[in-house]
Amino acid sequence: MSKAQSVKDVSAEEFIKAYSAHLKSNDKIQLPTWVDVVKTGSYKELAPYDPDWYYVRAASIARKVYIKQGCGVGHFRNHYGGRNKRKGTVPEHFAKAAGGLVRHIMKQLESVGLLEKSNGVKGGRKITSNGQRDMDQIAGRITVDLSAMY
């Protein structure tokens, strides 16, 4: 057992759980009024059951941008997309996730100071130094069993 140094040292599930709790407790991210009725994609039938799903998605997006700089809305639409499984005998096809939802979360993370727009050729977002420090502090609170990882 040892302490993690960065986000990359911690498993994704543990970090997203801890960081979403951190985002919720700090009240930095304001929940929109439509959070309880919005679907996460056109292929979905209902809104998510978890009342804190918005914070979980924001933590997941922040972690992904930390690991891979320059990710944009299109990347996350593909990443969070899925298949419509309730079509009877019609074959399933991949559908992208809702782009407005991802864009809203990224803008909120920008307003907090965790993300900023990238100046690269493709654009996207990158993590700020304050965002990296904040995320590394949260990851440092999580104990990691190194023997299980290797």
Describe this structure in words.
- The structure is a single chain.
- With 150 residues, the protein is mainly alpha-helical.
- 45% of the residues lie in helices and 9% in strands.
- It is built from six helices and six strands; from the N terminus they run E-H-H-H-E-E-H-E-E-H-E-H.
- It has a two-stranded antiparallel sheet.
- The chain is globular and about 50 Å long.
- It starts with a strand and ends with a helix.
- The model has no long low-confidence stretch (mean pLDDT 88).
Q: List the helices and strands in order.
A: EHHHEEHEEHEH
Backbone structural class:
mainly alpha
Helix content class:
40-55%
- First-last Cα distance: 13 Å
Q: Give me the Rg, rounded.
A: 17 Å
Query: Average pLDDT, to the nearest integer?
Result: 88
Regarding quaternary structure, what we see is single chain
In terms of DSSP E residues, the strand content is 5-15%
By DSSP, the count of extended strands is 6
Counting DSSP H or I runs of 4 or more residues, the number of helices is 6
The strand line-up of the biggest sheet is: 1-6
Instruction: Summarize the main sheet.
Output: 2 strands, antiparallel
Shape: globular
Q: Which spans of ≥5 residues are poorly predicted at pLDDT below 50?
A: none
Write a compact overview of the structure shown.
With 150 residues, this protein is mainly alpha-helical. Helices cover 45% and strands 9% of the residues. It is globular and about 50 Å long.
